[in-house]
Write a structure and sequence with these properties.
Layout lengths: L13 E10 L7 E11 L4 E5 L6 H8 L7 E6 L2 E2 L5 H11 E4 L11 H13 L4 H13 L15 H13 L5 E5 L7 H18 L2 E5 L3 H5 L3 E6 L2 E7 L1 H4 L1
Parallel strand pairs: 3-8, 3-9, 6-7, 7-8
Antiparallel strand pairs: 1-2, 1-4, 4-5, 9-10
Helix pairs in contact: 3-4, 3-5, 4-5, 5-6
This protein binds adenosine-5'-diphosphate.
């Protein structure tokens, strides 16, 4: 059991300091894939993470999402250190603070849109209250799927499925949503629609987003761009959209 983490005063929602990641530690194929990455994300920022394939974006996203552990450095969420805390604390933090949207929506095919959106409440509390079901309905309304709540993912278009995934990521109103290529498998029109939705949710709920993307158009529409090359942060820049 590790020591109880001590909350540190910090205005950043998320603060990464000199985070490194090594895979296969102690083995002949040991490799460091993130080398001392540092940045902060404040409440309500919409940030793009770009970089070539193999630059470490997924590894970084997994560390930020508390799905993988940093090898060294410090990662604080709302001032609480995450490096070195036990699995239970990480799971609790993940469920209270983070929402996830993936390229392939990961909706459960046998469940309706509404049931999929109530899943985070089920996982966090072991049951779904009528209040939470109402909240899930309101969230599906907000993403324009009020008429499709009873449909299963296979009956929805790719863009609609991704909107369900966004509703699911946001239903518990996490302060931070991590999105991994959320428009990666969509055509331009659906991709624009999904991005516009994320922007609206970001504005209305003051949710912070970190969006991994290969799409320069999408990155330019975020407020800030972080760029990774070979496991190093080579750019941290406010965009024209971010200055507006
Ligand atoms: P990106 O998402 O930018 O494509 P990744 O984070 O997937 O980059 O990968 C960064 C580097 O880390 C790559 O060289 C990849 O081969 C390596 N890598 C990723 N995951 C593992 C793992 N589980 N074990 C060993 N090496 C890994």
């Amino acid at each position: 059991m590790s020591a109880t983490p001590v909350a540190q005063p910090s205005s950043a929602l998320l603060a990464l300091n000199a985070v490194s990641k090594r895979y296969n530690v102690g083995l002949p194929n040991e490799a460091e894939v993130l080398h001392g990455v540092s940045f902060n994300i404040a409440r309500g920022e919409l940030v793009a993470l770009i970089g070539p394939s193999g630059s470490g974006k997924s590894t970084l996203l997994n560390i930020l999402g508390l799905l993988e552990r940093a090898t060294s450095g410090s990662y604080r969420i709302e001032g609480q250190e995450m490096v070195g805390v036990d699995d239970e604390a990480l799971t609790l933090r993940r469920r209270t603070t983070l929402g996830f949207v993936f390229q392939f929506h990961h909706l459960l095919p046998a469940f309706t849109a509404l049931e999929n959106v109530t899943l985070p409440a089920l996982m966090r509390e072991g049951r779904v209250t009528s209040r939470q079901r109402d909240k899930a309905r309101a969230m599906l309304d907000a993403v324009g799927l009020g008429q499709a709540m009873g449909k299963r993912p296979g009956e929805l278009s790719g863009g609609m499925q991704q909107r369900v995934a966004i509703a699911r990521a946001m239903v518990l109103e996490p302060p931070l949503v991590l999105a991994d290529e959320p428009t990666g498998n969509l055509d331009t029109a659906s991709s624009d629609e999904v991005f516009a939705l994320m922007r609206r949710m970001h504005t209305e709920l003051n949710t912070s987003f970190l969006v991994v993307t290969h799409d320069p158009r999408l990155a330019a529409r975020c407020d800030r761009v972080l760029e990774l090359v070979d496991g190093r942060l080579v750019r941290d820049q406010v965009t024209v959209a971010g200055r507006a």
